[in-house]
Amino acid sequence: MAKHGSSLGLLALVLLAFPPVAARAADCGSLASPKLDWQECTKKNLMLQGSDLEGANLVGTDFSLTDLAGANVKSANLEKATLVRASLEGAHAEGASFAKIEAYRASFANIIAEGASFAGAELQRANFAGARLAGASFEKAELGRADFDKAVLTGTKFSFANLSRADLSGASLEGPAIFERAFMFLTRIEGLDLSAASGLEQAQIDLACGDTSTKLPAGLSAPTTWPCPAEHE
């Protein structure tokens, strides 16, 4: 029994010295650096412009009101992070995951986010003006009143997304974008070239707001309700 008890004691000491990776706490006090672990940390209302967070674990991190303009978050995992009214203007976010983030009124203006995922994200009134979003995914995202002025949306996926009152009118599509089952109530598509878009159906176009310069895929036609009246918020 004594030998058995001492073995258990030794095992306990080993576990204390080397806890399982999953049980180790995030290093919330560390300075911004590549591949750091800030999972579930609170980083609200901070000035983190230009920070290098490439490949970092930012799952569930609270960045509300934080300024991350010009930051490097390439390949970082921000799944379920809170970015309410945060700024990632001009940030590098190629291949990053913003899946299921909460980012009401956040600014992603001029972000470089080719191949990034915003799947299932809450992005109401978010600003994507000038963003480079080729190959990015907004599948099942909430994009009510989001602004995509001058954004590059080549190959961007909006499948099952809510684009109610979102403004895509000044965006650029140099190739196909996917709109399968996207909800497009009063979505602004004036002047947009959707001729190569896939997944669009006439019912979606009938709900959207285009004009005589909107280009539609073959088989779809502009409804008689176009152009829509200007909105006053």
Automatic annotation (TrEMBL):
Signal peptide, first to last residue: 1-25
Family matches, as Pfam families: Pentapeptide
Family annotation (InterPro entries): 5peptide_repeat (IPR001646)
Signal found in the keyword field: yes
Nucleus recorded as keyword: no
Transmembrane segments: none
Keywords: Repeat, Signal
Listed name of the protein: Pentapeptide repeat-containing protein
Species assigned in the record: Rhizobium redzepovicii
